[in-house]
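Closing statement on the adenosine-5'-diphosphate sub-project.
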Amino acid sequence: PPVIELRQAGLRYPGPPPFTALDGCDLTVHQGEFVTVVGPSGAGKSTFLNIVGLLDIPTRGSYLLDGFDTVNLRDRDRTALRGQRIGFVFQSFHLLPHRTAVENVALALVYNGTPRKARGDLARQALLRVGLGHRVEALPTTLSGGERQRVAIARALVGGPSLLLCDEPTGNLDTATADTILGLLEDLNQAGMTVLVITHDTAVAQRGCRTLTIRDGKMTERVKE
Ligand code: ADP
Ligand code: ADP
C-alpha cells in the first residue's frame, strides 16, 4: 500500500470561532518518493504535518499510514504506530546537550522495546548512515550545526521508520550546510526512504520529486513537466 493516503482530510479547530486549518486534503505518497510542501506562514503546513505525523487527528476524512486506518485508533495505538513508522526531523535539533551523539540516537529506541544491548549498535549504524561514524562519542556542543542535524536525522532513522517527516530541516543552517543536509536527505531517499520536507524556502522545495503547496488550508500540486 502507499505510505500516506489522505482522503478529504481536514482539521477544524472548534474555536470559538471555529477555524478550518486544513480542508479537503487528498494525497497519496508511495514508498520511495521525495515530497516537499511549501506555503506561506499560517497556510496550514504545521496542521498538515501534525496530521501526517499522527500528532493530530483529522476532524474530517481519512488517513491511512502504510494501509492502517489511523483515525479510529486508540490513543496508545496511534502513539505506538507513530513511534514505529515516523521519524521526525525539526529545524532546531532537540538534542540533549549532556548526552553524546550515540546516546542521543540510542534514546530514541528506549520506548519501542529494543533491548538495551542492541541500542548502542543500532545507534552507531544510524550515525554511520548519516556520515558521522567518526563523531559517535561527541557532545552536541562540540558539533557544528550541520553535524547536529545529522545526529537528529540518525535519531529519526534508528527505529527503521517508513517515513521521514522533516519540518524546516535546514531552517537553522547556512546555505552551504543546508545544501549538504538536503544532499543527505536525497541520498537516504535514493536508498529507498520516503521523505517529506515542509519548508517555506522555494529553493528547498524544488529539490523534491513532487512539490505540494498549501494556501489557506487547501493543498494543490503543481505537476512537473
Ligand atoms: P457540517 O459541516 O457537516 O455541518 P459540523 O460542522 O457539525 O458538520 O462538523 C462535523 C465535524 O467535522 C466537526 O468535528 C467539525 O470540526 C468537522 N469539520 C467540519 N467542517 C470541516 C472541514 N471543512 N474540514 C475539517 N473538518 C471539518
Ligand atoms: P503554518 O504551519 O503553515 O504556518 P499552521 O498549520 O500552524 O500554519 O496554522 C494554520 C492556521 O490555523 C493558522 O491560521 C493558525 O492561526 C490556525 N491555528 C493553528 N492552531 C490553532 C488552534 N489551536 N486554534 C485555532 N486556530 C489555530
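The CA atoms of residues 27 and 159 lie 25 Å apart. With this model delivered, the sub-project is considered complete and its resources will be redirected to Aim 3.
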